[in-house]
Amino acid sequence: MQDIKIRLASERVNHSLTFGEKGAPQLFTPGQTITDNQRVMSGHGTYLDEDNKDVLKASVAGTVERVNQLICVRPIKCRYMGEIGDVVVGRITEVQQKRWKVETNSRLDSVLLISSVNLPGGELRRRSAEDEQMMRKYLQEGDLVSAEVQSVFSDGSLSLHTRSLKYGKLSQGVLVKVPPSLILRRKNHFHNLLCGASVILGNNGLIWIYPTSPEDESGVGGFTQNLEEVIDTEDRERIARLRNCILALAASKLMLFDSSIQYAFEESLSYSIKELLTPETMVDVALHTRHRLQSYKDD
Amino acid sequence: MKEAPYSNIEKNFLKKALGEKKRLDGRQFDERRNLKINFGKEYGCCHVALGDTRVLAQISSEIQQPKSTRPNEGHIYVNVEFSPMSAEHVEPGKPSEDCVVVNRVLEKCLRESKCVDLESLCIIADEKVWTLRVDITVLNMEGNIIECSSIAALAALAHYRRPDVTSTGERIIVHDYSEKEPIQTSLHHYPICLTYAIFNKGKQIVADPTLIEEQTAEASLSVGMNAYRELCGLHLGGLALSDHTSILKVVQKAGIAAADIVQTIKKSLAEDEEARSKNEVVGLSVCIRAGRITTLCDQRMKVKVNSQSIQAAAEKLVAQNRVNKHTKWDDEGNETESGPSNKIIVNLGDCSAELQDASDQEMEESSDGEEADEDDDEDDDMEAEENKAEEQEDNVEEPKKDTNDDEDDDSEEEPVVLEQPKISPKKEFNKKKDKKNKSAKKTAHQASMEAGSDDELQVVQELTKEEKDRMKKVETLVLDDSEEEGTTTLTAGEMEVPSKKQISTPRSKQQRKRKKNQNQNQNQNRKNGQKPGGARQWYAQNAW
Amino acid sequence: MELLSDQGLRLDGRRPEELRNIRCKLGVFSQADGSAYLEQGNTKVLATVYGPHQPRGQSRNKAPHDQVFVNCQYSMAVFSTGERKRRPRGDRKSQEMSIHLRQALVAAIRTELYPRSQLDIFVEVLQADGGNYCACVNAATLALVDAGVGMREYAVACSASLANGEVALVDVSHLEESSGGSNLTVATLPVSGQVALMEMSQRFHSDHLPKVLERAIEGCKDIHQILDGAVRKHVEETGRASGWGQVDRAGIAL
């Protein structure tokens, strides 16, 4: 017998965690004047009024970030805007002549040039015509890859590369999509969590959870995809729990990084994995995680 | 096909010109293009041309059940279609976005403003009502389709007559137009949708935009106004305007413009009404007749036609021209009234004839007697015409004779040599009779040689009525050329012939003298009172 | 039916310059980039925004090189009107509404920020009680703000009508619309006072146009206040939970 839960829309659980904390920084909404100081430069999320060039107005709703003369407004939620050095997880959408088009939850599809990948066998050689024919053998439409942003084109699209062994085609695991703004920018995005699974936190909001391979790091990467390997039940359960935790944190708009996910995992152990899907449990887990983070911070 | 966008250079140029208060076609900011309204033979068919934008509207009616919420009101449906001939990018099938916009604006203007008295369309309440369908087809897109379509729709609605209906209780009988007088549509008011293009954030507002102005504009404003300055619909779309007071100014101006247009519509309706009452319905062919040669026909079929038939046909057409006060279209497509033209056939070529205005001739001697008097069907006028021909004979212009010389070449090619008569019909007849024994062409040729010109044409002055009926079957396209030289040319698409005709070479004095003598002889003969009857008989036998 | 009673009350008891009750919520869908739900009196509207993203399929050719391609779809749920609506989208009225929606929103969005991309805006009317278009524009604006799309300012729409030939009424309901009164809908950018779209149906004398227009623009300004308040509240709630994206060196959220 399965439990079927029905609830009224008005009784929906509010995921946001409200705390009476220190006052919020100043908010700006589109069309609001930020300053009329002539000396400031307009960054992202701002624009100069057409009629009066001195006035700087906000074009998104968010908080102001000021670096000397540069004023930017950061919205709470927006599409991924890539920067050099970011780690992204993306899906191949097209195989074109000398490159692949990768969908990375950004404004335009990113580009993975054939010269930016490691050929199988690892040798360094010039890409020949044969390689072009064999492109599909390496990466096909629908494959997931992890890559790093090499450069940004003038039109805003990203150029990716997988020139390290830790990047490459992803094989068995679970993909979770969260808003990109919740991913914290860190030095390392590949984590082997203590709970026994590994996770790649892509800056573009795509998170890849996979079982920690017993060998060293070179397991993930290249173009080998081991789809025959059978993942045992425990691993699967861990991965499933992690996924639900991440979704719970994302629903309550908590920042995602290795510690928060780890704590969330630990807090969630009191529930079964299925229960983590109900809104109340999600809020509960998020709350506890936040508490823990706070307490560690205060220490 | 994708719509070809206008280049940035063109757009920038347009914007710059507007900044200097100039429009590309020289109009003022609130000046409209020429509006021409033509009605078709049937009631409810209307063709409107606003500059080069052309739109055709047709009304049809049907009896249907009324809506349950409004049991005593008829319906009116408006449908606008862009014909694929109107622009390169228009494809048949699903209406494009522009088409949907035009449809909606017109629907709002005509339906929701309640310009048609829907209650008058009711036959039996709750059972049968009239449904009027306005179908508008855009034939050519050159900007401002909304305005053109709304004028067409209104004019067609006002023009339309629906069949009269009598109800016998259970049945209703719809009467044919011939049985009972059809009923006019009753319109409460005449709403016109005027369009303005807006540039530079509302600083420049332009009336009746052309296609390039529409494409370059930042926003466009469509205002539905009637003659009482009531707003019947308003639509403003595009980039944001800085100031809404400019819109209010535009609305004021629109009121005046709307009143003018309604006047024009009413005038055209009145003219059409008049024409119908005189049984002179011309239909839409008037608006299609161009004021200039529109096609060039390089390949021509050489058809051996009996000479008389062409002459007669040419004559008849020229006669028609004279009698009918037909409107001519000059290069801009503006109507110029032309009075009854006294045209005389100077030369008949292969499918063409050269005419000349009788009034333009100078007093010069000519013995050619080339003028062919327009011959109407009345035989009574013959005498008069003979006399006229006599008079006119003296008025023949020098160049005319010269051009005849040039026809030498023509006559050699042509299988048909058309001879021009000496003025006296009897004389000509006699002459012909003599030559009849030899091959008609050859002798005619000789005769004309004698006369000093190869290509003198013999114009038939008398024709029986049957002849004339038969001649009617020969069709020639009548086009008016420019009247700089005082000559008009009838041509069926040939360009070479007129040019040839215009080269003039002087005639020798000898030839002129010969001609003069000839004519004098003819005159004498005529004065002797010879009856022209014989000629008629001859032609009756010989034609076809 | 009189639109304005002797005491100066309208059919639903409002004063001529009173707006209907507006309630709104941002971020109602987790799937979409931006979403909002708006109620204006009894008119209920849902709006979602996807993008800006890579144009796919046929839209690939439509994306201009210097602007974003805005794709709007207006749809009315079949249960939204009194009689079941047979065609929720694709009929002429819906197409016209989509076009008008796009016109109003393109005036507000900073289209030059996203060249070659596509922005999808979907609006669904759940309950139609007059002022559908206005509610749609307002909801779409909120959804765009939620999605973080750069805008010059809010695009706000309001409708106004004329009663008894003299008094201008703001925010017309369905009953007032169908009682034969004329209906002027205006979409503006309230801070700068620019007009993005004006739409009028029925018939009234052009002398009355200024005052009806004024009333509608006033209404837009009032609605702008309300929407702005809702956005601030939402941003505060959300931002606070995520600690405003600020983290200390240990990587713990502040």
TrEMBL record, chain A:
State the source organism's domain of life: Eukaryota
Localization terms from the record: Nucleus
One family from Pfam that matches here is ECR1_N
Q: What is this protein called?
A: Exosome complex component RRP4
Q: Does the keyword Electron transport apply?
A: no
What PROSITE patterns does the record tag this protein with? S1
The record ties this protein, via SUPFAM superfamilies, to: Eukaryotic type KH-domain (KH-domain type I), Nucleic acid-binding proteins, Ribosomal L27 protein-like
Report the residue ranges that make up the S1 motif domain in this protein: 85-163
GO terms under cellular component: cytoplasmic exosome (RNase complex); nuclear exosome (RNase complex)
**rRNA processing listed as a keyword:** yes
Q: What is the lineage of its organism?
A: Eukaryota, Metazoa, Ecdysozoa, Arthropoda, Hexapoda
UniProt record, GO biological process: CUT catabolic process; exonucleolytic trimming to generate mature 3'-end of 5.8S rRNA from tricistronic rRNA transcript (SSU-rRNA, 5.8S rRNA, LSU-rRNA); nuclear polyadenylation-dependent rRNA catabolic process; poly(A)-dependent snoRNA 3'-end processing; regulation of gene expression; TRAMP-dependent tRNA surveillance pathway; U4 snRNA 3'-end processing
Automatic annotation (TrEMBL), chain B:
GO term, biological process aspect, one? rRNA catabolic process
Q: Which GO terms describe its cellular component?
A: cytoplasmic exosome (RNase complex); nuclear exosome (RNase complex); nucleolus
Name the residue ranges with Acidic residues bias: 357-384, 404-416
> Which UniProt keywords are listed?
Cytoplasm, Exosome, Nucleus, RNA-binding, rRNA processing
PANTHER family, from UniProt? Answer: EXOSOME COMPLEX COMPONENT RRP45, EXOSOME COMPLEX EXONUCLEASE RIBOSOMAL RNA PROCESSING PROTEIN
All copies of the Exoribonuclease phosphorolytic domain together span 32-163, 189-251
Where does this one sit in the cell? Cytoplasm; Nucleus, Nucleolus
Q: Which family does it belong to?
A: Belongs to the RNase PH family.
**Residue ranges under compositional bias (Basic residues)?**
429-444
Which portions of this protein are annotated as coiled-coil regions? none
Its taxonomic path starts at: Eukaryota, Metazoa, Ecdysozoa, Arthropoda, Hexapoda
Q: What is this protein called?
A: Exosome complex component RRP45
From TrEMBL, chain C:
What species was this sequence derived from?
Thrips palmi (Melon thrips)
Every copy of the Exoribonuclease phosphorolytic domain together lies at 18-149, 154-218
The identity of this protein, by name, is Putative exosome complex component RRP41
GO CC annotations, alphabetized: cytoplasmic exosome (RNase complex); nuclear exosome (RNase complex); nucleolus
Biological process terms in GO annotation: nuclear mRNA surveillance; poly(A)-dependent snoRNA 3'-end processing; rRNA catabolic process; U4 snRNA 3'-end processing
Lineage: superkingdom: Eukaryota
Q: Which InterPro entries match?
A: ExoRNase_PH_dom1, ExoRNase_PH_dom2, ExoRNase_PH_dom2_sf, PNPase/RNase_PH_dom_sf, Ribosomal_Su5_D2-typ_SF, RNase_PH
Annotated family: Belongs to the RNase PH family.
Q: Does the keyword Cytoplasm apply?
A: yes
Its function, per the record, reads:
Non-catalytic component of the RNA exosome complex which has 3'->5' exoribonuclease activity and participates in a multitude of cellular RNA processing and degradation events.
Q: What is its main location?
A: cytoplasm
Q: How is the quaternary structure described? A: Component of the RNA exosome complex.
Q: Does the keyword Cytoplasm apply?
A: yes
The listed locations are: Cytoplasm; Nucleus, Nucleolus
Q: Which GO terms describe its molecular function?
A: RNA binding
Q: Name one Pfam family in it.
A: RNase_PH
**Keywords in UniProt for this one?**
Cytoplasm, Exosome
CDD domains noted in UniProt: RNase_PH_RRP41 (cd11370)
Q: Which SUPFAM superfamilies match?
A: Ribonuclease PH domain 2-like, Ribosomal protein S5 domain 2-like
Q: Which Gene3D superfamilies match?
A: GHMP Kinase, N-terminal domain
